[in-house]
Amino acid sequence: NAGVTQTPKFQVLKTGQSMTLQCAQDMNHNSMYWYRQDPGMGLRLIYYSASEGTTDKGEVPNGYNVSRLNKREFSLRLESAAPSQTSVYFCASSGRPSAYEQYFGPGTRLTVT
Amino acid sequence: AQSVTQLDSHVSVSEGTPVLLRCNYSSSYSPSLFWYVQHPNKGLQLLLKYTSAATLVKGINGFEAEFKKSETSFHLTKPSAHMSDAAEYFCVVSEDTGRRALTFGSGTRLQVQP
């Protein structure tokens, strides 16, 4: 039982490049989330998916797209990376028995130059 | 709308002394509240949670927090700090809506001096 896994762990992009961050969970959770963490700001919600086939915007969705590929996987795509997207990205999931409690992956540290 | 304010960005204590990390929240609903800990270059780990049961909540590693509705506070305490407690701590409130998205405080960095 790996919990929530994320790939890659580190990535450096040049401005304008694209990439996809992968997230998978093996806890049979319905809900999945993408957050970004910036210094002094805690975590902010980018997108979430309440269930397979649905996605919705969070607090800071601009510049990102997501895909809920199946119940296990939720990917985050940067179509044209910008330096302002330099951050640490966390994926999380939640579901039965407690819909309130979110489990976090180890994070992806992204630098855009 | 909901929000969380962590009153101290940095707290320094000596090993063996009590820890107090302060958190105030604002929520339109009866909130669910959490404390998460993040050790350097690591992910987030749940310390404890309040979901409208007992107001004094016990978590892992000797931490506890008390929900005080009249003060809209959810302060985190530990009687005796250990060196391994040095980390960043986040107070978090969950929406009482379908998406259950979390709103994070800005974090408190706990430093433990030997």
Q: What keywords describe this structure?
A:
heterodimer, A: 113 residues, mainly beta, seven-stranded mixed sheet, four-stranded antiparallel sheet, 11 strands, globular, B: 114 residues, six-stranded mixed sheet, 12 strands, 0% helix, 54% strand
Estimate the mean pLDDT confidence of chain A: 92
**Which residue ranges of chain A are poorly predicted, with pLDDT under 50 across at least 5 consecutive positions?**
none
* Multimer state: heterodimer
What is the straight-line distance between the termini of chain A? Answer: 36 Å
**What's the overall geometry of chain B?**
globular
Structure annotation, total helices of chain B? 0
In total, the number of strands of chain B is 12
Average residue-wise pLDDT of chain B = 90
Number of strands of chain A: 11
Give the ordered list of helices and strands of chain B: EEEEEEEEEEEE
**How far do the termini of chain B sit from each other?**
41 Å
Number of helices of chain A: 0
Strand content of chain A: over 45%
Characterise the protein shown here.
The complex is a heterodimer of chains A (113) and B (114). Chain A has no helices and eleven strands. With 113 residues, chain A is an all-beta fold. The termini of chain A are far apart. In chain B, 0% of the residues lie in helices and 54% in strands. The termini of chain B are far apart. The mean pLDDT of chain B is 90. At the A-B interface, strand 4, strand 5, strand 9 and strand 10 of A face strand 5 and strand 6 of B.
Topology at a glance:
The complex is a heterodimer of chains A (113) and B (114).
Chain A (H helix, E strand, L loop, with lengths): L3 E4 L2 E4 L5 E7 L5 E7 L5 E7 L6 E2 L6 E5 L5 E5 L8 E9 L2 E7 L3 E5 L1
Parallel strand pairs in A: 2-11
Antiparallel strand pairs in A: 1-3, 3-8, 4-5, 4-9, 5-6, 7-8, 9-10, 9-11
Chain B lengths: L2 E4 L3 E5 L4 E3 L1 E4 L5 E7 L5 E7 L5 E3 L5 E5 L4 E6 L8 E8 L7 E3 L3 E6 L1
Parallel strand pairs in B: 2-12
Antiparallel strand pairs in B: 1-4, 3-9, 5-6, 5-10, 7-8, 8-9, 10-11, 10-12
